[in-house]
Q: What sequence folds into this?
């Protein structure tokens, strides 16, 4: 039972950490104040790394748990899972998206001097948002506690946090091209 508890706890807290990272990423990317942006980005990255550590713990605990019919092969072929194959596939695709965003983020400083990478950075970083959304779907479909009131409250809170951050950014920050156009007058 210990592995089951570890898997559940790590999965839930990873989703919360990725939600924090997503909300702060949304809010901080439009900030014009360097000091504020620095701290938002620092907490954004810290939450993302913490989420990844917990995600790894979740995956290892699920695979190591002998009471669950999930093997390491699901990381390559998730539809082959004996346990809720669609939900497991969402989780594996979320893992791929989050790892891709992590690798690109870790390399961003070194690759920023290349114009091609800089042009595609936001496109690559979208994989983190897709990974977050898929992880929420995975939790709603695969989790053993998915229909309990406390888990539904956590999931709804995660969704509201990211949507709220999106609304905040949309209504608070002007796009850079409008800011420049306003200064030119």
A:
């Amino acid at each position: 039972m210990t592995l089951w508890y570890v898997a559940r706890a790590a999965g839930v807290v990873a989703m919360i950490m990725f939600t924090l990272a997503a909300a702060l990423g949304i809010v901080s990317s439009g900030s014009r104040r360097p000091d504020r942006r620095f701290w938002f980005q620092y907490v954004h990255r810290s939450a993302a790394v913490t989420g990844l550590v917990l995600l790894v713990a979740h995956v290892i605990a699920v695979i190591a748990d002998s009471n669950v019919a999930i093997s390491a092969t699901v990381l390559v072929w998730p539809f082959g899972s004996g346990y809720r194959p669609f939900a497991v596939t969402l989780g594996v695709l979320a893992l791929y998206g989050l790892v891709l965003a992590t690798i690109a983020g870790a390399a961003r400083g070194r690759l920023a001097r290349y114009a091609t990478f800089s042009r595609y950075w936001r496109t690559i970083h979208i994989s983190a948002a897709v990974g977050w959304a898929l992880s929420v779907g995975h939790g709603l479909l695969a989790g053993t506690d998915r229909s309990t009131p406390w888990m539904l409250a956590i999931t709804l809170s995660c969704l509201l946090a990211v949507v709220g951050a999106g609304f905040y950014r949309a209504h608070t920050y002007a796009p850079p091209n409008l800011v420049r156009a306003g200064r030119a007058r």
